[in-house]
Amino acid sequence: MKNNEQIIKEKLELVIKIITGVADKRKDFDAIMQLSLIKLEMGLEDLKGLMKHLNETKDKLLNLIDEIKYTIDAEERYVLFPMPDIKKETYELGKNYMRNFFSWLKPEDNFSPEELIKIFEEEKYRLEEAKNILEKIKPSPFLKDGENI
Fold first, then answer.
1. How many CA within 13 A on the CB side of residue 4?
2. Using DSSP, how many helices (H) and how many strands (E) does the chain show?
3. What is the pTM of this model?
4. How would DSSP label each residue in 67-131?
5. Contact 54, 148 (CB under 8 A)
6. In the structure, what pLDDT confidence band is assigned to residue 21 with cuts at 50, 70 and 90?
7. What's the CA angle centered on 132, arms 128 and 133, to 5 degrees?
8. What is the dihedral of CA 66, 69, 73, 78, to 10 degrees?
9. Cα–chain-centroid distance for residue 68?
10. Model pLDDT, residue 118
């Protein structure tokens, strides 16, 4: 039978796998590198060490989810804008201030706006799923105060 710490580690690994799937599809190499570092840190620690840094690891993953979702939301707004001058301004702002803004889309890709919205919705659903898993992870109640921080 698995103990609570092993279950938490498996849930964290599942979350990393979900986020990596979205980041891979979007060719978000910065996110992939951050996920690799988190995975490496998890691999270097024993279960007790992982539990000590659980909140920090969860925060890193939640921040990464939020960053990716923010970019997806901006891309979605860009697709939905009807006026060309607003679209151009939005695109320039996105390219200058957001990492990976539409860099996953190749010029030869010929997606309709509806197809792009479907892709965005699927990615946001996966990220929301990962976020829900993370939020349900609680440190072991058997650790003394301060051990799970």
1. 12
2. 6, 0
3. 0.84
4. HHHHHHHHHHHHHH---HHHHHHHHHHHHHHSTTSSTT--TT----HHHHHHHHHHHHHHHHHHH
5. yes
6. very high
7. 120
8. 120
9. 6
10. 95
Instruction: Give the SS3 label for residue 21.
Output: helix
Burial letters for 118-142: b for 16+ Cβ neighbours within 10 Å, e otherwise?
Answer: ebbeebbebbeebbeebeebebbee
138, HSE (Cβ side, Cα atoms, 13 Å) = 4
pLDDT of amino acid 143: 52
Q: Distance (Å, rounded) from C-alpha 105 to C-alpha 109?
A: 7
Token couple for 58:
């969860």
Instruction: Give me the pLDDT at residue 141, please.
Output: 59
